Amino acid sequence: MEINPEEIYKNFINKKIDRSTLIDQLISVIENSIDIPQRITSVHILSNLNAKDQKIYKLIENLAISDSNKYVRLTALKYLGDNFIDYALEPMKWAFHHEKALRCLLVIVYTLGNINTQPSRDFLISILTSIDVPAFKRHIEKILESEHINDYQNHELSNIIKDFLIVNELETKYGHIEFKIKNARVCELDLSDISAHVFGWNALNKFPYFITELESLAFLYLKFNRLTNLANNIGKLVNLKTIDLSYNKIKSLPNSIGSLKSLKTLNLRYNQLESLPSSIKRLQNLEKLDLRSNNLLSLPSDLNKLKKLELLDVHGNRLKGARINLLSLNSLNYLELGLNNLDELPHWVKNVKDLKRLGLGGNRIKKLPKWIGSFHSLQELNLYDNEILILPDSIGKLQNLVRLTLWNNQLKALPRSFSLLSKLQVLNLSWNKFVKLPEWIGNLKSLEILTLWGNKLEELPESIAQLKSLKKLDLNFNKIQVVPEFLRQLEKEGLIIYK
Predict the structure, then answer these.
(1) pLDDT at 79
(2) Are 189 and 163 spatial neighbours (Cβ–Cβ below 8 Å)?
């Protein structure tokens, strides 16, 4: 029966064996065991022991260049880079020419970049000159053909090679992919809808771990795939500005997402998230957070620390009864709360003073609070698919309102203050219970589109003729038998009437 490496090390800690015996027994496991995890653990223990004699070097070198298992090779390559950097050049060169596994190749190139010698530099340059992928080649030639090459340290040259290896792996696995390069580094990568051009068994259902090695990546698109989670080390992408993960099957986010210090746009719409990690509060540059159509019951209490947040979309979640702290979010101008089973406008919305767009469609709201009129900057208000019976007079204070959708409610009349909405351009009152419109409707001088589909209107006020900006008027499914003459005249002047 084999003694496992943990037991061997435990015997050493308990002083049952000395260091020399410990090392010999670990070497025996590495050389003779068929248990891969135990062999790898033995190498890790040797590394932690800082074992650096020539015997160990030869063993690790042999594992790195010739072991049949890629994970053993990977562990050995890391050992060489960490403990034998002064002797690592030749085995790394040999391994680079013979290794096929990307994980191993990335460690090899990383180690070569850490060897700060001319021979290592020459080898890195020889790799660069052999790259014939046009997108990379143009940038590499620009570097090599000028004195700029002297500005590049060895580790910077190795980073270019790492980026190439990663793109090459992706194209080998998924066919043609879209990417952009800046200064010979990958800055944008689009892996959206991979299943559209590969067989199902090769669809993108796991986050490619090696993407986190693209240190200059600023834009990452992974929408329309089958991802269920992200790499735990996603936080390594510190230059990432935009990540689009929409239309996947992601159920949770790793805490490391809070380390994406450059992130401005996080798109997670149409996933299966039930909660967000508290670390999201550290995304101090985040401007757009799209969480539409998930399974969220609440949001982190310290969401208000995202001081630069401009857009928050939580449409289609389960936030009824949730309290969301939006206090101090002075940059927030777009808030979407539709389809959350709300029966009233949550009081905490009042804290956001500078909203320009507010979405409340698809809820069960029966009335609006008087303080709805406090949103003096509001330009778009969506209240469709609710149960609203009456609008408060304060709605007339929304003097910057441009678009108002109220279709599919229970409205029979509009308050007189409505006539003060001098900037209103689009008004949708479809599928309500209007029998008539007020004469003052003609005061809405900026109105361009008036949609009245599905009401009980029998006639229209002549004041509509005063709406000189009106371009479209939808009267479908009402009780108007004959189009009045004043509308016929407007039709001749270019008004489009649906009837």
Answers:
(1) 97
(2) no
